[in-house]
C-alpha cells in the first residue's frame, strides 16, 4: 500500500484510537480534575497523532524524525500521567492497563518507524 497521507500511516491510526480511549477514560475523572490531570492526559494523547501528522508533512526526514521523537515523548508522558491517575484512584489498574498497553504498542511502532526512516536517510 502506498502512503499518500499521514492518514495512511498505521501509527497515526493507532494514535487516533488512543486519543479516543483516553477521552472516554477521563470522562470519569473527578470534576475538580477537568482542568488538571484529565486535561493534561488528554493533551498528551492528542499530541501523539498530531506530531506524527506534522512530521509526516515536513520536507526533511530530520524534521520528521524530530516529530516522531516528540510523539514518543508524549506517549511516555501519557503513561506517567496514567500512573498518577491510578495512584490517586481516579481510575482502576484494569482501566488504565488497556490504554497503557495500547500506548506501549504504539511506542514500539513509532520506534520501528523512526529506525526505518533513519536507515533510509543513511542510504
Keywords:
123 residues, mainly alpha, de novo design (two linked rop proteins), 0% strand
Structural description of this entry:
- The chain is mainly α.
- The chain has a single domain, classed as Up-down Bundle (de novo design (two linked rop proteins)), CATH 1.20.1440.
- Helices cover 76% and strands 0% of the residues.
- It contains four helices and no strands.
- The radius of gyration is 15 Å and the shape is elongated.
- The model has no long low-confidence stretch (mean pLDDT 93).
What is the alpha-carbon Rg in Å? Answer: 15 Å
Secondary structure tally, helices = 4
Characterize the main sheet. Answer: none
The string of secondary-structure elements, in order, is: HHHH
CATH hierarchy class name = Mainly Alpha
Concise structural overview:
This protein is mainly alpha-helical and 123 residues long.
Amino acid at each position: 500500500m502506498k502512503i499518500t497521507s499521514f492518514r495512511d500511516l498505521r501509527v497515526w491510526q493507532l494514535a487516533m484510537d488512543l486519543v479516543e480511549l483516553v477521552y472516554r477514560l477521563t470522562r470519569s475523572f473527578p470534576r475538580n480534575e477537568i482542568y488538571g490531570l484529565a486535561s493534561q492526559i488528554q493533551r498528551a494523547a492528542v499530541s501523539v497523532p498530531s506530531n506524527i501528522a506534522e512530521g509526516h508533512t515536513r520536507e526533511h526526514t530530520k524534521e520528521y524524525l524530530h516529530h516522531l521523537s516528540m510523539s514518543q515523548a508524549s506517549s511516555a508522558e501519557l503513561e506517567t500521567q496514567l500512573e498518577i491517575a491510578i495512584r490517586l484512584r481516579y481510575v482502576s489498574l484494569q482501566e488504565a492497563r488497556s490504554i497503557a498497553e495500547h500506548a506501549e504498542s504504539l511506542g514500539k511502532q513509532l520506534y520501528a518507524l523512526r529506525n526505518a526512516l533513519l536507515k533510509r536517510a543513511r542510504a
